[in-house]
Design a protein that fits this description.
The protein is of the alpha+beta class and 294 residues long. The protein has 13 helices and six strands. The chain folds into two domains: 74 residues, no CATH class; 196 residues, no CATH class. The protein has a four-stranded antiparallel beta sheet.
Length: 294
């Protein structure tokens, strides 16, 4: 649609006839993200609070629909790229975010680790280097404010260097993928860990079905706690943790989870954060996103 036609539609939002205003609102939403620049211009031009609120709601609905559409496409295409999943969750709160903003920072961390690597390193030595670069050099750490929403948005974690177990784990996983290191997510109750797998060959050559299949527990060399500066754990530590939680161990808790499960954990953290802050609208939105992934 031409710019002047979009502007004419936006002008009709202020029509006193509610029916006309509703039809215009629906038509603008159908046009999608292309109308957002003109909606923002109109918001700045008019000072009427009611009119501005209408524009804000339309922009939010368009952006939210865009996030839902892309998140659904991500899931339906196999959810192979964890970075993309985390990006669309962050895009919900930061609609101007570009995936290149995330890629550049992940690449910078990866490069610093790669420079310290050589072909003779053992799995444990690689993890020690990764931990040093991520937690000492780049100073990533856990956020003391456990329920802060910013701890779950990957762009804010990359900016502040503070996150929760899931977001720090995602960053660790993205760096590991760039380095072709076989590290996977482990979705335990109340805690998110990583596992260093005994897998030959580059990760990127693994087929879609193989990625989604859970490897057997015996293929895990050791576990990593991203929320505790990458501390290395064995199966006994997980057994002990589950005993403290008074939970009967389940085989799946010791084995790698899917990217969908990781993004679900991220969304659940955000839902809890916004519930505690009293943002009911955001809780409803994020529940919609969660339903897409389930």
């Amino acid at each position: 649609m031409k710019k002047k036609d979009i502007q004419a539609l936006i002008h009709l939002l202020d029509d006193p006839d509610a029916e006309i205003s509703d039809v215009v609102t629906g038509n603008l939403k159908k046009l999608g993200t292309e109308v957002i620049p003109e909606l923002e211009n109109a918001w700045e031009k008019y000072t009427d609070h009611h009119y501005q609120e209408k524009i804000e709601n339309i922009i939010h609905d368009i952006q939210f629909t865009n996030v839902k559409t892309n998140l659904r496409q991500w899931k339906d295409s196999g959810a192979l790229d964890l970075q993309e999943g985390a990006f669309w969750i962050a895009r919900y709160q930061f609609p101007d975010l570009e995936i290149s903003d995330i890629e550049q920072e992940i690449n910078r961390i990866t490069r610093d680790i790669w420079l310290e690597f050589n072909n003779r390193l053992t799995a444990l030595e690689k993890v020690r280097i990764m931990n040093h670069i991520i937690f000492d050099v780049h100073r990533f750490s856990k956020n003391k404010h456990v329920h802060a929403p910013r701890s779950s948005y990957i762009n804010q974690v990359l900016e502040s260097r503070k996150g929760n177990a899931v977001s720090l784990g995602i960053i660790y996983l993205l760096v590991a993928k760039q380095l072709d290191i076989p590290i996977r997510g482990i979705s335990l109750p109340k805690i998110f860990l990583l596992a260093y797998m005994d897998e030959p060959g580059p990760i990127r050559s693994v087929l879609k079905n193989a990625i989604k299949k859970r490897p057997s527990g015996k293929e895990v060399l050791f576990y990593i706690n991203p929320y505790n500066r990458g501390a290395v754990l064995g199966k006994k530590e997980i057994d002990h943790y589950l005993q403290l939680q008074k939970m009967e161990p389940q085989k799946s808790w010791y084995e790698p989870c899917s990217n969908e499960e990781i993004i679900m954990r991220l969304l659940l953290n955000l839902i809890i954060s916004y519930e505690k802050s009293g943002f009911a609208d955001k809780v409803n939105d994020l529940q919609e996103l969660l339903n897409i992934i389930k």
